[in-house]
């Protein structure tokens, strides 16, 4: 029984990222809620069964942010997911992902993790600010279960507290799914999705969702993450994005921050992925018409507290390069630049430039 509670706790570790993005895509871009949650749930379950650890499933962040800010229609977003999926499958099956991954030094990966951690903490403040009382209670729960009451799965008390408040806040829900129709993209939507959404996302996806996720998995799970590699990760995301895009769901990815979230809250195998996958599938089918109202009733203060903890834990991966001054300088530069500009792509491109620039200088000095 105790192990099941830890699996449940780990299953919901990444809802602080998934839920807010899902609600925004449904409310502002008209995405089909049943398709979004159903595809995310199926991707969670399939990933857990294949990788045998709990792989996170999140809407592609840069793509979602641009789509939400620009008010793009769901048909353009679906088309962009199909294009992104085709690109990811191409780099996986051609071996290009392995060759590109070899170019990323550990210092740059740690910088990506540092920058993403800082971004998660910043996002968490926005979630907690309008719900500070609940956020404070959630923080106390987390501190107690992580430091003193270590035998208690940290998310179980918070999920119970959040469910109690949700029932008080939520309006009566309409039961039933929203009808799903095939989302075959037009040429114009494919072109617009590629230029407006895919191009800004490609580098970030490869750096964060492929290379950094591969490295994070090995740090957290060791030999249990043996099925993670620079081919299997983009292939998994590629297949999921094509299926999700054609079914009307959101563009999806694995992410190194989400991998940390699930693990730190109790996920030790693929069981947590099957649990959250099953919940999302059931939610999409049962509450499709009421998805925004039901999810929005869950206290944002709790989501923010979870996200803040995950952000700090993720940023702390930098500890293993602190003994190397050059690596530390590069990692901090990547992280701080990415955070300050709100763009990890620029951060890790600068980090790669510094790394290979210094390597070139050293080679010249030796000759």
In short:
This protein has helices spanning 2-11, 15-29, 33-51, 61-70, 74-93, 96-101, 106-128, 132-148, 155-169, 187-221, 232-247, 256-264, 271-286, 291-297, 300-315, 325-341, 344-366, and strands at residues 58-59, 252-253.
Low-confidence stretches: none
- Number of E-type strands: 2
From N to C, what is the helix and strand string? HHHEHHHHHHHHEHHHHHH
Q: How large is the count of helical segments? A: 17
Give the strand content: under 5%
Helicity, as a percent range: over 70%
Coarse shape: globular
Distance between the termini: 64 Å
Overall structural class, as computed from helix and strand content, comes to mainly alpha
| Rg over C-alpha atoms, rounded to the nearest angstrom | 20 Å
Strands of the widest sheet, in order across it, are 1-2
- Overall mean pLDDT: 89
Major β-sheet, in short?
Answer: 2 strands, antiparallel
